Amino acid sequence: MILGDLLGTPVHDAAGLRLGRVADARFTINGPPGQLLADARLLGLIVSPHSASSFLGYERTGIARPWPIAHLLRWRHRGSFLVLWADIDMIGTDTVRLREGFTAYNPALNDTGNE
């Protein structure tokens, strides 16, 4: 599957309740850099209940300039969360279903698991 095809896909919980749309993907770097780049691994997907557009990096803490853009994007993505790859039950052509008991993390979660 191509990641671009997944963006904007509706996300549902195990009971079928719609939670939002895939707005972005979060990757983590595994190991030291190789010949060109370090290996990247998909950590999870960011789900936004209000918008399927990108965060443009503004979900990360500390980015607040230019303030009109930061404010608008934070408002558009209010309620967004990161769901880890292990909590994804199924990815279909028209939906992503999360497993029962999934955990919704702050989208600013870094790759070590700390906020």
Query: Helical proportion?
Result: 10-25%
Helix and strand content put the structural class at mainly beta
Strand fraction equals: 25-35%
The number of distinct structural domains comes to 1
- CATH structural architecture: Roll
Please describe the biggest sheet, giving its number of strands, its sense, and whether it closes into a barrel: 6 strands, mixed
In what order do the strands lie side by side in the largest sheet? 4-3-2-1-6-5
Number of strands: 6
**What is the count of helical runs?**
2
CATH topology descriptor: SH3 type barrels
What general form does the structure show? Answer: globular
Task: Please write the CATH class name.
Answer: Mainly Beta
CATH-assigned homologous superfamily: PRC-barrel domain
Could you spell the SSE succession in H and E letters?
A: HEEEHEEE
Weakly predicted, low-confidence segments: 111-115
How far is the first residue's CA from the last residue's CA? 29 Å
Mean pLDDT: 80
Radius of gyration: 15 Å
